[in-house]
Design brief:
The structure holds 3 protein chains of 3 kinds. Chain A contains 4 helices and no strands. Chain A is mostly helical. Chain B has a single domain, classed as Up-down Bundle (Four Helix Bundle (Hemerythrin (Met), subunit A)), CATH 1.20.120. Helices cover about 80% and strands about 0% of the residues of chain B. In chain C, helix 2 runs parallel beside helix 4, helix 3 packs across helix 13 and helix 7 packs across helix 13. Chain C has a single domain, classed as Cytochrome c oxidase-like, subunit I domain (Cytochrome C Oxidase, Chain A, Up-down Bundle). The chains are: A mainly alpha, B mainly alpha, C mainly alpha. At the A-B interface, helix 1, helix 2, helix 3 and helix 4 of A face helix 2, helix 4 and helix 7 of B.
Chain lengths: ~110, ~200, ~625
């Protein structure tokens, strides 16, 4: 294991040596709070078309999750190919399940 | 082997990826999270199917309270940010900062869990028991699975804190911190969908 | 190379060695043994079923016991026999095929085995406890709910499978990471042997399918233990939800079973045709496509549930699509053999026997995918014949091929070819006798899962033939066991490459492989790495490193206790319905054991040990 270790260890060292700042993380946080706030406000406002609210809520949630995964979970960084494959495959399976659940309860 | 040659202070910038074991842990944990996605997805599908079946019990609209959910969301979201700070401290090899931010994360998570226990208890008194209806069963299962994940995360971070205290930051402890961070963000991400699908959509009708 | 943490090599012997091992080769053997044991139990159940159906209105077993037999036969064969045996192959072979010294997580690997094992034992203890699962292996609600199944049968099923499912899931993650991160230098994805590819995709399917089962089982458990209402229509629950969740897991599960068999067949056919696998990249593509489509077709098990014409049509078309990548594979095997100098060893006989058998199972599969026609076939023996053609005719023949092919690599002894021929012919003829006639029983209208049939329905002769075939399969299995017993008494004389035509890396090292697999990590220069070197006149692989101390993980008893903890917890929670608090406390104690061991594992800083240079050189001197 020793050789394999040393051989591959520099692969990741090449990538970055500069420590990342916390600014972008705080921006991501503010953005998340904002999205959450909009979602809450939409529902509390009431008097809006229900289907529209449903769609907006899901869109807002997806944007927020995307932001958090990209920045906080570093999925936008290099070396995350399999991370993306893993999460995306999971999402595809979930998507089919949920669509099916909705399909057959609402139709 | 390189794990043993690094002495404290000579750690690489990303100590969590310095050894093959560390990298394996991270890759494997990403895959595990992919599986967890399906786990929660199935729970969501079950909830969406059954959420209209309230029988004689309270409806989601009567049950849920904006203030409580907003507070819980704020707590968990902030704890996700503090776990990012913990990781940044780790990359600067600042063990004190790392442990400090992990403790903040722990406290925020504990507060979230306390709130959820209070919430469940409150609901039970309103007649929304586990066995009341298909809606209540699927609600408690989905939100409870998430809560159990939070509880497990709290125990986990305590164990990591103890190890950091005893052994300091090295190429064995660093991947553990990193993987915990991923886990914690994932819990947060699941919560985003829970407050959207369960609480807000429940409020809409 | 100074290593601060190196301490004296601690090696355990005897039973403790097996309980504490984290060596993937030993874990592979344990999977094979445990899987083989459950295969025999499942086989015995099958024989009893066939004896009951041999004559009309016979009473060999009672109606209740018959229900238990069909339930346990299906569950045991799929979860406790087929999958573990495949995991045995993966463990024994994958690290060797990719030129790795170990799997990514040796400890987790052992944990996966022990959780599977204790889950399987828990499930089978139901026979001793006297309340056996009896609602069919699909456990459809509401039959499996407390209203219709008051005894603990379903609980054994739910908790046993939940525990063994955890083992399977972590095993799957282990192999994914092993294949992603541990390949030898030069072993790119498109140079990986077909069995490695199949394992990779199978593990991915496990990863994304098993969580659905986890949720389904948890929901059923909540319904039964805590009076939940997931599947209870009187409280708003939905019984079709169970079918969906079960088959969202269940259909990928079918591919989890068959893909590794495809991998094994690819290796065996290519080796004994002395030819490169025809259309390697299309094989890889077909495997991925089958894996993907496997998640999109689950509702074809539910055509008669009443999902409506749109859903039925969509799932019907999606199901037919799967025939395309599968067809690609069949033709590739045929073209691999075309023009090759084929050697009919026992392994290759099983592989060649597999191809037409599997095609037959595939063709009936396409027939079943036609939704309107399925209304006729549904729940008849036609379906039973179909899935036994793909699972026994596909998977089990694949397993037999793999067993004969890799036996020398795993145990250092070549199985007797002569006895092997007898095994093949008895098993193969027995198989077709048993299941071919069942197609016609189904078309004549014999429903599945029935305990008795009346005389004069035209079922008598075909059922009799089917039972004779089942007995013949039993004889084939016994011959194989005799073969093992005889071979085990012989000395370990197998060469590195006992078939002479080995193509992949596992044939470059001694049989059985040393603890550290490769004394020097090999350099991979192309697909079929070992064949490539042989063709260039080299007698060994080019190493990428000098001989030096090799780091090994320490053995540990913790995985055993973690599995045991779950076993105890399962019992405690299961009987809480009857014994109340005492039982709950036992359940919690079990969980404390498991999580306590988990904490201990994290807390103990164990850096393993090193095998020193002298020992490696000595091994090489003796065996080279």
């Amino acid at each position: 294991m020793a050789a394999a270790n040393e051989q591959t260890s520099h692969r990741s060292d090449v990538k970055t040596t500069k420590p990342e700042g916390s600014k972008k993380h705080i921006i991501a946080f503010v953005f998340s709070i904002l999205l959450t706030f909009i979602a809450f406000a939409l529902v509390m406002a009431g008097e809006i078309n229900t289907d529209f609210i449903y769609i907006m809520l899901v869109v807002l949630a997806i944007i927020q999750v995307f932001v958090q995964m990209a920045f906080w979970m570093h999925m936008k960084d290099k070396g995350h190919t399999f991370a993306i494959i893993a999460i995306l495959s999971g999402v595809v399976v979930v998507f089919t399940c949920v669509i099916m659940a909705l399909f057959w309860t609402t139709w | 082997m390189s794990s043993h040659s690094h002495v404290e202070g000579q750690l690489p910038h990303e100590p969590e990826r310095a050894t093959l074991e560390g990298r394996n842990k991270i890759t494997g944990f990403w895959l595990f999270l992919g599986g967890e996605t399906v786990l929660f997805g199935t729970l969501f599908a079950a909830y969406l199917t059954l959420r209209g079946q309230v029988m004689d019990g309270p409806t989601p609209n009567e049950l849920f309270d904006f203030a409580l959910v907003a507070l819980a969301t704020a707590l968990l979201l902030t704890s996700s940010l503090t776990s990012v700070f913990a990781l940044q401290a780790m990359h600067k090899h600042n063990v004190k900062g790392l442990m400090g931010w992990l403790i903040v994360t722990l406290l925020l998570g504990a507060a979230f869990l306390g709130l959820e226990i209070y919430e469940f208890n409150h609901y039970v008194h309103l007649g929304h028991t586990f066995a009341a209806s298909a809606f209540s069963t699927s609600f408690y299962t989905l939100v409870g699975f998430h809560g159990a994940h939070v509880a497990f995360g709290l125990l986990w971070v305590i164990l990591i804190l103890l190890q950091l205290k005893k052994r300091g930051l090295n190429t064995t402890t660093a991947p553990k911190v990193y993987v915990f961070g991923m886990y914690w963000h994932f819990i947060d991400v699941v919560w985003v969908f829970i407050f959207t699908v369960v609480y807000l959509m429940g409020k809409v009708g | 190379m100074a290593h601060a943490h190196a301490h004296a090599v601690k090696r355990r012997t005897g039973i403790m060695d097996w309980l504490t091992t984290v060596d993937h080769k030993k874990i592979g053997i344990m999977y094979l043994l445990a899987g083989g044991f459950f295969f025999l139990i499942g086989g015995l159940e099958a024989i009893l079923i066939r004896l009951q159906l041999m004559f009309p209105q016979s009473e060999v077993v009672s109606a209740q016991f018959y229900n238990e037999l069909i339930t346990m036969h299906g569950t045991t064969m799929i979860f406790l026999a087929a999958m573990p045996i495949l995991f045995g192959f993966m463990n024994a072979i994958i690290p060797l095929q990719i030129g790795a010294r170990d799997v990514a997580y040796p400890f987790v690997n052992a944990l996966g085995f022990w959780t599977f094992f204790f889950g399987g034992v828990l499930l089978n203890i139901s026979f001793i406890a006297g309340s056996v699962p009896d609602a069919g292996w699909t456990m459809y609600a509401p039959l499996s709910g407390t209203t219709y199944t008051e005894h603990f049968g379903t609980d054994y099923y739910v908790i046993g499978l939940q525990i063994s499912g955890i083992g399977t899931l972590i095993g799957g993650i282990n192999f994914l990471v092993t294949i992603i991160n541990m390949r030898a230098p030069g072993m790119t994805f498109m140079r990986m042997p077909m069995f490695t590819w199949a394992t990779f995709i199978t593990s991915a399917l496990i990863l994304f399918a098993f969580p659905a089962l986890t949720v389904g089982l948890a929901a059923l458990m909540f319904d039964r233990l805590f009076s939940g209402n997931f599947f209870d229509p009187s409280a708003g629950g939905n019984v079709v939800l169970w079918e969906h969740i079960f088959w969202i897991f269940g259909h990928p599960e079918v591919y989890i079973l068959i893909l590794p068999a495809f991998g094994i067949i690819s290796e065996v056919v290519s080796t004994f045709s002395r030819k490169r696998l025809f259309g390697y990249s299309s094989m890889v593509f077909a495997t991925i496509l089958i894996g993907f489509l496997g998640f999109m077709v689950w509702a074809h098990h539910m055509f008669t549930t009443g999902l409506g014409p749109i859903a039925n049509a969509l799932f019907s078309v999606a199901t037919m699509l799967i025939a395309v990548p599968t067809g690609i594979k069949i033709f590739n095997w045929l073209f691999t053999m075309w023009g090759g100098s084929i050697k009919f060893t026992v392994a290759n006989l099983f592989a060649v026997g597999f191809i037409p058998t599997f095609v037959m199972g595939g063709v009936t599969g396409v027939m079943l995918s036609v939704a309107p026609a399925d209304y006729q076939y549904h729940d008849t023996y036609f379906v039973v014949a179909h899935f036994h053609y793909v699972i026994v005719g596909g998977l089990v023949l694949g397993i037999f091929a793999g067993l004969h092919y890799w036996w020398p690599k795993m145990f250092g002894r070549v199985l007797s070819e002569k006895l092997g021929y007898w095994t093949f012919w008895t098993f193969y003829i027995g198989f077709h006798l048993t299941f071919f006639v069942q197609h016609f029983l189904g078309l004549l209208g014999m429903p599945r899962r029935i305990w008795q049939y009346l005389d004069g329905m035209g079922f008598n002769t075909l059922n009799f033939i089917s039972t004779i075939g089942a007995l013949l399969m039993g004889v084939g299995t016994i011959l194989f066991i005799i073969n093992i017993l005889i071979t085990m008494r012989k000395p370990k004389t197998a060469e590195n490459d006992p078939w002479k035509d080995g193509r992949t890396l596992e044939w470059t090292i001694s049989s059985p492989a040393p603890e550290y697999n490769f004394a020097q990590t090999p350099l991979v220069r192309g697909y079929d790495a070992w064949w490539l070197e042989k063709m260039e006149g080299n007698s060994k692989m080019t190493p990428v490193e000098p001989i030096g101390p090799i780091h090994m993980p320490s053995p540990s008893i913790l995985p055993f206790f973690m599995g045991l903890g779950l076993f105890i917890a399962g019992f405690g929670f299961m009987y809480a319905r009857e014994f109340g608090v005492v039982s709950l406390v036992i359940g919690i104690a079990g969980l404390v054991i498991t999580f306590g061991c988990m904490g201990l594992r994290s807390w103990i800083d164990d850096h393993g040990f090193h095998i020193e240079e002298e020992e490696i050189l000595k091994d090489q001197g003796v065996k080279a």
